[in-house]
Specification:
heterodimer; A: mainly alpha; about 0% strand; B: mainly alpha; about 75% helix
Chain lengths: ~130, ~140
């Protein structure tokens, strides 16, 4: 089977892999994002503690801001819920038949679990508590 | 037009890491839930914002939560069972994360020498992270 590996992002997204493919992409992006964030966090924490330099505190201020936390929380929660769906489907292959339904269930859990804290964070951030 | 990428032959190592990724992912969620619950019991019910919550969930350790404006919780976290808990958690998180990075990289990189180099590099970074994390846990 010959496949062209050089496709544009738009063509890639229009590929009819549907929810499974889009969740796969998001799972990779959020996973790499978490690794990048935690890696930077460890290095910056080390330099901040050892030298107390301004750059460390500046980076610290960025990732403790509420706007950045929205991304972190999205990544962690999506990666956790999507990952548990994957793990359960792999450990109980009978569930594979219901992948589409499980993906809907996954977003049904994700939406309030993400939305409610975000609502509270935005309320705190925008009204000052 | 190029042919599709060659599929890696899955040996016992790949199968082991596949299993490890599943189980460590599930266990990390359980551990995160436990440490968050204990953090609330230890007195963080009213002072928690999102960064403090993440600090507690994924690295429950006095050194790590010291910057949050929580009443003194050092006594609650610094004993052997929480040190073992944190070490296990870091072991699973680092293994999960660096193996995931390796999987993604090897999906896009075909040159065998480069793959071998990246494997050694990622293993070295993993080992360094583990040593650093265990030092931080035991020193606190």
């Amino acid at each position: 089977m010959a496949l062209s590996r050089r496709v544009s992002i738009g063509a890639g997204l229009r590929y009819r892999g549907e929810q499974g493919m889009l969740n796969w992409i998001l799972h990779r992006i959020t996973g790499l994002g978490i690794l990048l964030f935690v890696g930077i966090h460890v290095v910056v924490g080390f330099f901040g503690q050892q030298f107390g330099d301004d750059l460390s505190f500046a980076i610290n201020a960025i990732y403790e801001s509420w706007a950045f936390q929205l991304f972190v929380y999205f990544s962690v929660l999506f990666h956790a819920i999507n990952g548990s769906r994957l793990a359960l489907m792999d450990l109980f292959p009978g569930l594979l038949r219901y992948q589409r339904e499980l993906i809907w269930l996954q977003w049904l859990i994700f939406t309030p679990a993400y939305g409610l804290p975000v609502y509270m964070m935005l309320q705190t951030a925008l009204t000052g508590g | 037009m190029r042919t599709s990428r060659p599929i890696r032959s899955a040996g016992p190592f790949e199968y082991g890491m596949w299993l490890f990724t599943r189980f460590s992912g599930l266990a990390l969620m359980l551990f995160g839930a436990i440490s968050m619950g204990v953090a609330f019991i230890l007195g963080g019910r009213t002072q928690v914002d999102m960064p403090a919550m993440f600090r507690w969930m994924f690295f429950p350790n006095p050194n790590h939560v010291v910057n949050t404006n929580i009443p003194d919780v050092s006594l609650g976290w610094s004993n052997a069972s929480w040190q073992i808990f944190s070490t296990l958690m870091i072991f699973m998180a680092a293994g999960h994360a660096y193996n995931g990075l390796r999987m993604v990289l090897e999906d896009y990189i075909q040159r065998p020498l480069l793959v071998a180099f990246l494997r050694v590099l990622i293993f070295t970074i993993w080992l360094g992270s583990m040593i650093l994390a265990i030092y931080v846990i035991l020193a606190s």
